[in-house]
Amino acid sequence: MARGSTFSARSFRDRAVVLRHYKLAEADRIVVLLTQAHGQVRAVAKGVRRTSSRFGAVLEPGMVIDAQFAKGRNLDTVTQAQIVEAYGAALSADYVRYSCAAVMVEVAEKLTRDDADSTHTQFTLLYGALNALANSQLHPFAVLDSYILRSLAVAGWAASFAECVRCGMPGPHRSVNVPLGGAVCPDCRPAGSRSPSPEVMDLLDALNTGEWERVQRADQATMRQAGEIVTQYVQWHLERSVKSLSVLDRAQEV
């Protein structure tokens, strides 16, 4: 069990990232959270929609919180919640960063819905990515795309852009096949593969491995083309739409 997490027969405490919420009855919400040690949790936040609620600004998507939960038959209940990292103000002040954060929490929700084995790593990746979005000088699209590739790898869909995904031949290669999961050599290249520039291929590899010095050398056009491939990759392997991607304007200057 992760440090800082406690457990009893009727309750547990854990650090969590709020992924989303939706209305329940007149004043309540169901909150979806990615916890550090207990996987994805769906819990009722009672009275949270009232102006007097002490949870009002705490249980918002993207917030990192320390929370106490009472276990229930179908849904748990949030009984206490304190902010650990309040990224909301920094992210909401910048449309691009806010949009990237929205994509991250949606991808995290879909990837962790039925996966309890990689909980701690997925939590750490999302926590770190949100922190980088809010506090660093890194390009927000680069933070997003690196997060997507690395979280998909943890979930079992690891991409490769440095060697052929079919035969393992070392690159650099000039073609990418999204369904196969990355770069393909000339002998293995299926019909319909994309042929990005060498700069895009290099950036994809750097995003995949978290090599930020290489990432920061990329220009806006290269970043946009790499992002289009990452978007196709996550949509293909999740086999469902990531709705927040529809409002992400990759052509916008940052």
From TrEMBL:
Alphabetical list of Pfam families matching this protein: RecO_C, RecO_N
Q: Which domain of life is it from?
A: Bacteria
- Any idea where the DNA replication/recombination mediator RecO N-terminal domain is? 12-87
| UniProt keyword terms in alphabetical order | DNA damage, DNA recombination, DNA repair
Q: Which residues form a coiled coil?
A: none
Q: Which InterPro entries has this protein been placed in?
A: ARFGAP/RecO, DNA_rep/recomb_RecO_N, NA-bd_OB-fold, RecO, RecO_C
Renumbered to this chain, the signal peptide range is none
What the entry lists under NCBIfam families is as follows: reco
Q: Which HAMAP family match?
A: RecO
| Role noted for this protein | Involved in DNA repair and RecF pathway recombination.
Which family is annotated?
A: Belongs to the RecO family.
* Official protein name in the record: DNA repair protein RecO
- The UniProt gene name for this protein comes to recO
